Amino acid sequence: MHAPELDKVLNVTDGTLEFYTPAEAEDGYYPWAAEEGYAKSTNQGVDSSYVDATYTIPSASVVNTTVETKAGEILYFRYRVSSESTDRLYFYIDDQQVNRWSGDVDWAVYFCQLEAGTHVLQWEYTKDSGAARLEDTAYLDDVYVGAPKAVTGVEIQETASVAGYRRVQLTWDVLPDVASNREVTFTSSDESVATVDENGLVTGVTQGEAVITVTTKDGGFTDTCLVSVTGDQPPVKIYGFVHCLSAGRQDGLPAWWLKTHWYTFFDTNPGGAEEIGMMPDATSDEAVSVLCAELVDDTVYGYTMDGRFFAMDFDSLQRGELSVEYKNITRYDDFYPTEMSYDHSTGTMYVINYLCDLYEVNLETGEVDPDSRREIYGYLPGANDGLMTCIVGFAIDMIGNAYVMIAGFGAAWGGNGCSRLASLDLETGEYTVIGQTTAQAYQEQSMCFDPNTGKLYWAQWQTPYSPEVMNLFIVDTETAVLEDCGKIGEYGAGVRGMFIPLCEHDSNVKAVEERAATCTEEGHTAYWQCQTCGKYFTDEKLTIEISWEDTVIPALGHKTELRNAKEATCTEDGYTGDEVCTVCGETVKEGQVIPANCPSKAFADLNTDRWYHEYTDYVIAKGLMNGMDETHFAPEGSLTRGMLVTTLYRLAGEPEVAEPATFSDVKAGRYYTEAVAWAEENGIAKGITDTTFCPDKAVTREQAATFLYRYVTEYLEQEPATGADLSIYTDREAISKFARTAVAWATAEGLLQGFPGGSLQPRGTLTRAQMAKLLTILDQKF
Fold first, then answer.
1. How far is CA 584 from the centre of its chain?
2. 3-state class of 248 per DSSP?
3. Which of 312, 393, 689, 745 suits a disulfide with 447, CB 3.0-4.6 Å?
4. Do both 576 and 677 map to the same domain?
């Protein structure tokens, strides 16, 4: 039946598609419903046990539409799934399944090229008889059929860090997210530092920085990521027994080989795993399969599926000429070893059986000590009641800390349904969950510590029926966060008895000379590094171990000075100046042009050809002096005491005043009120009498010198320069006694100058233009 409410939520603007849901809702079909601008399936919480027996399909929620397409047109739609792995969203074109999704999938966009003609598009969310999980729903939005959308840009993460030899996956977005051609290419600015492949996977080569550029094929849009390569972490060589090697999918079905071979592989490229050989007495008809194994010194100990204990010379394994000694052991009905690990801190070998019991092993005989049995127990948050704890990984680090991986294979295991890492008390058998991983696991597999780096490795294997989930991980022992190293072999493998040998540092050592730090790049001290295990040392004999961080010399950082600064004038542009590093010469920050500007031109009575022009420009631009009105400055007008104190107050930054002035003639609310109070508080202003300031009285030249002298010595707290010899002036006797020191200082500093004829005119009235000069010199000099 036609569902017009879905037309609105599933079409982009001005869309013409019409959507339909099956009419047989009472027979197990469930229509899709419109909700908050998207469509969602409605059979959540329903499973196939509720469907009428006449139906052979599971419960389904279906929506479809018929479209007419032209050559070159495309289809895209947004989808989201929140379900268990066996409840799926299917997409069909003309009754042919094109794709399917399950699990917890956030909103994503699906693209498809359509041939010209009529097509039926159908979406179907189906449920099996299993329990519901998460939201148990599928979602659709923005179904579009039409011409391809053009690319408008690309964004990539700004920075990334990777160690030498290691890899990091970059993330990027082609914009908009519905752009049809999402192809991009990657380039590295310096492949001697870092390389990048066609998928944005960066490999660190040597310490330094490289810029990775992503470019869209459509439109040539670019963005960059700065990659920093830190100290080398050479590949870790791992050994393990492969019992199942995936062949991927053939004809849509999982395919695999049953294997009984030892393999070796590197954590940087586990896909390049190399076969070593079978156990010595194995044949193509009668395989000897290893259940678990552990390396102690030069011997690999382990158990086989046929019930034997073995000791294998590790050197022979490395040569591919396996030398093994088998020992028959007591057979217990409830003993089937699945993982073993050696505690170097106590010299004890432990083994876990399929019932999740922990035992100690006698390495001379291979016998387990029945009296050492500890039942492994603990609390698994969110798991179903009565669920058996299944240990699928067990490892002990070099100082005796033990960890187990607890199986998670769906909703019954709680949380996200994936496996959990837990610490294990070897004395009691009690485990404590550290965190939940993002990988499921159910059958026998292996976990081991790298004794050289302390990293925990997990050869995760869910089931041969799911080749997509067979990966080697590095597990964070504090958070259970996984670092994906990739699949072991081309498609993945089931690995048991995994171990990593302790490096002897007896060969393949690289000496690295000291590299000086620069302003922008770190340097490092001289060091020696073992290329087998990656450890760093301060000496050639490799006796003093250090970390990579211990070798780092921090970047020096720029030491800058301002160069090429220039004030703007009335006719020429100025420049704020460049910040230039005095060490490396790099221009850290370029300056900006200051447009030519003549503040004095705003006032009709200021002549730009007069001597005071540069000074009035300065004080007006700095906000130290204002005009008498909007168009007049009155350069030849007398400067009052209130004006002078106000200019000094502005020069000081107009600080907050604690108390009002004590002078009776300084009224509140006047332009100079705060300034006089500040000047009195700081010893700059003194009254004409004890009670009056006379703010409107003209200032003499000697009074101005006194105000400025006090500003420098009292407020700025600077030592005054030696005063000038006033005896050369003809009117020296006219200088008031209170002003002689200040006038001598002002004359020495160039603030006051004599007049033609040899006079100083100390009691002459100071003009506003002259005050502009005094303020300019004062601001620039003190």
1. 29
2. strand
3. 393
4. no
Distances, alpha carbon 547 to alpha carbons 164, 231, 453, 757, in Å: 14, 9, 10, 81
Please state the separation of Cα 286 from the chain's center in Å: 52
- Domain range enclosing 11: 4-146
CA distances from 225 to 168, 230, 434 (A): 12, 16, 34
Q: Where are the beta strands (DSSP E) in 233-252?
A: 237-250
Model-level pTM greater than 0.70? no
Q: Can you say whether the dihedral through the CA atoms of 268, 274, 276, 277 is positive or negative?
A: positive
Q: Is residue 373 part of a domain?
A: yes
Asked whether residue 313 falls in the same domain as residue 327, the answer is: yes
Alpha carbons 231 and 249: distance in angstroms, whole number: 39
Residues contacting residue 198 through CB under 8 Å, at least 6 positions apart: 185, 186
> Where is the domain boundary, 482, 499, 516?
499
Q: Which pLDDT belongs to residue 257?
A: 83
CATH number for the domain harbouring residue 486: 2.115.10
Integer Cα distance of 343 and 160 in angstroms: 37
Q: Note every long-range contact of 371-377, with CB atoms under 8 Å and residues 24 or more positions apart, other chains counting.
A: 374/426, 374/427, 374/428, 374/429, 375/429, 376/352, 376/404, 376/424, 376/429, 376/430, 376/431, 377/429, 377/430, 377/431
Tell me if 516 is assigned to some domain. Answer: no
Reported as half-sphere exposure (CB side, CA atoms, 13 A), residue 531 has a value of 6
- Closest by CA to 498, choosing from 465, 525, 473, 528, is 473
CA 152 to chain centre: 25
List b or e across 556-582, with b for residues whose CB sees 16 or more CB atoms inside 10 angstroms: bebebeeeeeeebeeeeebbbbbbbbe
Task: Output the pLDDT for position 303.
Answer: 97
Do 262 and 285 touch, CB atoms closer than 8 A? no
The residue out of 232, 261, 294 marking a domain boundary is 232
pLDDT at 169 over 60: yes
Q: Which tokens go with 537? A: 């040392």
What is the number of domains present in the chain?
5
Per-state percent for the chain, helix, strand, coil, to nearest 5: 15, 40, 45
Tokens representing residue 592 in the block: 């900006």
243 and 214 within one domain: no
Give which of 73, 451, 107 is closest to 296, Cα–Cα.
451
Cβ distance 175 to 155 under 8 Å? yes
Q: Given a cut of 70, is residue 46 above it in pLDDT?
A: no
Beta strands in 233-307 (DSSP E): 237-250, 253-266, 269-278, 290-296, 299-304
Place of tokens 């963005």: 223
Whether cis (ω within 30° of 0) applies to the bond prior to 270 is no
**If phi over 0 gives left and psi between -120 and 50 gives alpha, with beta otherwise, what is residue 694?**
left
Q: Are 225 and 211 in contact (CB under 8 A)?
A: yes
β-partners of residue 552 are 524
Considering the domain architecture, whether residues 217 and 259 belong to the same structural domain is answered as no
14 pLDDT above the threshold of 70: no
Amino acid at 366: G
pLDDT digits (tens, 9 = 90+) for 619-665: 999 999 999 999 999 999 999 999 999 999 999 999 999 899 999 99
Burial of 175 (0-12, 13-18, 19+ CB in 10 A): middle
C-alpha separations of 480 from 345, 645, 680 in Å: 24, 70, 69
Residue the block writes with tokens 């067990």: 394
Vertex 214: Cα angle to 209 and 216 (nearest 5): 170
- Count CB neighbours of 549 within 10 A: 9
Helix (H) or strand (E) holding 617: helix 613-622
Residue 13 has pLDDT above 70, yes or no: no
DSSP 514-572: -B---SSS-EE--EEEETTT--EESSTT--SEE-HHHHEE------EEEES-B---SSS
Write out pLDDT tens, residues 404-417. 999 987 777 877 77
Judgement on whether residues 410 and 338 belong to the same structural domain of the protein:
yes
CB 386 within 8 A of CB 414: no
